[in-house]
Write a structure and sequence with these properties.
Elements: E1 8-10, E2 21-23, E3 46-53, E4 64-65, E5 68-69, E6 73-77, E7 82-87, E8 93-98, E9 103-110, E10 113-118, E11 122-127, E12 133-138, E13 148-149, E14 154-157, E15 162-166, E16 173-178, E17 184-186, E18 193-195, E19 198-202, E20 207-212, E21 218-223, E22 244-246, E23 249-253, E24 258-263, E25 269-274, E26 280-283, E27 287-291, E28 297-301, E29 307-311, E30 323-325, E31 328-332, E32 337-342, E33 348-353, E34 364-366, E35 369-373, E36 378-384
Parallel strand pairs: 4-9
Antiparallel strand pairs: 1-2, 1-17, 3-36, 5-6, 6-7, 7-8, 9-10, 10-11, 11-12, 13-14, 14-15, 15-16, 18-19, 19-20, 20-21, 22-23, 23-24, 24-25, 26-27, 27-28, 28-29, 30-31, 31-32, 32-33, 34-35, 35-36
Length: about 400
């Protein structure tokens, strides 16, 4: 198993949380040595637009702390409880708040709020304009995914298989649903996605479910990753990656499983491709991209499921989920490098060193900039210098 997948969660019962136990990591052998980076002739000129420190970083914890944006500002958090807001274009720090919580998931942004979750089961909401705390609530289990903030409710996925809807004004629980979880699962959870009247999420039992965003009633619930194998490790079928919802299609990928396309209205499986991933998916107008558990990147035609190309130059470099950026597909790696590949061919275009620490979360695009948060707490904004800047 890859190093990012080594930490396994034993769920004896929902009542045992949040005092659940974590196992794995030290006694597992690495499946392969990270490949050395090769020299090449860049075809893109990537430049640093700005950079800033968020906090002390989270170098050993592999948390789901990912930059988020409302289109004008960028928000980031660290495990020591710092939440910071920046001007997206210039990098000017607008505010910084300390919530005194071990933050592990988020932030999520919407409805004037910045919402994060902690490893000790709290969710806290800050005012997006000022950073002032609006509310905090205890959801009784670790939050290891970014909350999703809709127009009427905020949605939180916890590691014990719950999806909880909170009132964005008060933090009070409105409804919750819970999936039955396996005894053993890969550390990590996919974030919920709000799409019009639905909130959609993948779970560690290999299921993707869509719920009515207002009351939590089940619209559809589909097993897309049936467990197989003789041992519990072989039967791991987690959907740790956040699903992608594009138009009338939902895309998901599982560990030791496959990439699937589902009909948004019914959950019907439209196509599937064998591929194992815990990092996640990216997409553009035509294609879907996935990072494999051994460092491969695959490009798939969204409409048909046809594989377009497969890139193996980053084998065992513990890469992030891919992000579409202009005509490129971008991933970060264990040494703090950001790699740019041609979205049409998979050819390596550029490489930038964002920092000396691992990059765990996928890069984030806001307008013409790409934002990368290293596990050391550095937030770096990159731009394609070959594209004329808007005045």
């Amino acid at each position: 198993m890859n190093s990012r997948a080594l930490c396994l969660l034993v769920l004896a019962s929902a009542a045992a949380l949040p005092g659940c136990s974590w196992i794995g990591g030290d006694e597992e052998d690495e499946p392969g040595t990270p490949v050395e980076l090769v020299d090449f002739e860049p075809t893109l000129r990537i430049r640093k637009a700005w950079s800033s420190g968020v906090g002390d970083g989270n170098e050993t914890l592999r948390l789901a702390l990912t930059p988020a944006s409302d289109g004008t500002h960028v928000f980031a958090a660290d495990n020591d409880g710092r939440v910071v807001a920046f001007d997206a274009a210039r990098g000017k720090r607008l505010w910084r708040s300390k919530v005194e919580l071990p933050l592990a998931g988020g932030p999520g942004v919407g409805s004037g709020l910045v919402v994060t979750g902690s490893s000790d089961g709290y969710v806290v909401a800050l005012d997006a304009a000022t950073g002032k705390e609006r509310w905090r609530t205890n959801v009784a289990s670790e939050v290891l995914a970014a909350p999703a903030v809709g127009t009427t409710l905020a949605y939180v996925r916890t590691v014990d298989g719950k999806l909880i809807a909170l009132d964005p004004g008060t933090g009070k629980q409105t409804w919750f649903v819970q999936q039955t979880m396996p005894r053993l699962s890969v550390r990590g959870t996919g974030a919920p996605v709000v799409d019009r009247n639905l909130v959609i999420c993948g779970f560690d039992n290999g299921r993707v479910a869509a719920y009515d965003a207002t009351d939590g009633s089940v619209v559809w619930d589909v097993l897309v990753e049936p467990p197989s194998g003789r041992t519990e490790v072989e039967r791991l079928s987690d959907l740790n990656a956040t699903v992608q919802v594009i138009g009338e299609d939902v895309y998901a990928v599982g560990y030791q499983g496959r990439v699937v396309a589902l009909a948004r209205e019914s959950g019907q499986i439209l196509w599937s491709v064998e591929f194992s991933s815990y990092a996640g998916l990216g997409a553009d107008l035509r294609n879907l991209y996935a990072s494999g558990d051994k460092g491969e990147i695959i490009a798939i035609e969204r409409g048909s499921g046809r594989e377009l190309w497969r890139q193996g130059q980053l084998a065992f470099r513990d890469i992030t989920a891919p992000t579409a950026f202009g005509g490129s597909v971008v991933v970060g790696d264990l040494d703090g490098y950001v790699h740019f590949f041609d979205a049409g061919t998979g050819k390596l275009q550029a490489r930038v060193h964002a920092g000396s620490s691992r990059i765990t979360s996928a890069p984030v695009v806001v307008n013409d900039l790409l934002y990368v948060l290293t596990d050391g707490g550095d937030l770096v904004a990159l731009r394609d210098a070959t594209v004329p800047r808007e005045k």
